[in-house]
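Order emerges. As here.
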Amino acid sequence: MSNINSPETHAVARPGRPKRSAAVESAAHETSVTASALKQFAREETEMSTRHRAIRRWSVIPSVALLVGAGLALSACQQQVVRAPEPVRPVRVMKVEASAATREIDFSGSVKARHEADLGFRVAGKIAERLVNIGDHVEPGTVLARLDTNDLDLALRSAEANVNSANARLEIAQMQLQRGKQLIGKSFITQSEVDQRQTEFNEAKAALDAAISARDEARNQAGYTDLKADAAGVVTNIRAEIGQVVSAGTPVVVVARDGEKEVAIAVPENEIRFFKPGDKLAAHFWADDTLALTGVVREVAGSADATSRTFAVRVSLPDDPRVRLGTTATLAANVPTESTGIVMPLTALSERDGKPVVWVVDPNNQTVTPRTVETQAFAPGGVRIAQGLAPGDLVVTAGTQFMTPDKKVRVADPALSDDGKSTVATR
């Protein structure tokens, strides 16, 4: 019995379709086998992909669990970490102290002789000799310089000749007067002629007196050709040389008289009220540190200098041979202190809640506390504090930007924490 499902049966059962060749039948069979193989491969790939996804899914779960566990462990460790204490910051402080009742002010000046004269000739002429130099010590009557005397000698001789001429005219007038008095007794001349002769005699006598005065003046001028010192002293300057023509009164030699010396200083307007004649000042000298004298204010200028706007003050010094003219002296005066507030540097001020504050160090526990202060005007050393500080307070002057209330600090200057020494804040 034949199989109805075989190809041959299908070929017989389907009338009207032509029978296929063996080659065609073989190609169709190979195509069918290839399609079946492709479908089988696709099914296997799908099953393998599904298994791989499942494996990856289950492999991720342990990793996630491990990460979560590590996070929980790290959180627990962080909760157990103790925060390290803040470092103690070093600061620089200034100790506030009560100001003294007086303050010292210093002025420098040069030592001068109290009496110093610019000596010059009393007549004009040409300098023929200069007999002294700077630094020479002279005595009264010492010739310092001399003029050419030719012109003055001629003037003196002319004046003497005028005296002789006037004397001769006076003798003639006197004889005429005597003769007239004799003749009038004999009525040879009239009284008017006698009066005329008397007038001539008077004129001749007056002319003689004038000639004598002119001669004496010429003699004096001839003596003025020698420039002499009028007191003992030291020559400090020479202002004319040999051959120079000078007029009467032109300074030629400067002589500082021996005796009292003084220091000339220039005091500004804001300090002149502290200087009065008779006040005592301490004098120190740059040339000799061991020399210390006490000077007395002798003179205070009544008006300020037009250029420097300072007042000239002269301080007399006691007679001491160690003090030389021209040396530099420093005069110190103690004047009252004006209480206008404590001066603190600008670096000590901070702002807190819109108000100026300073940071005060507690020396017991070495912590800082803000303290509100009241400021005034600026001062040369910083700013004046009117209220808020008291003597003994330690105020932070450097490092205020890092300060917080009750912050631990370390004073940078050991002297302040040991014996309390510091710069005194000026009031």
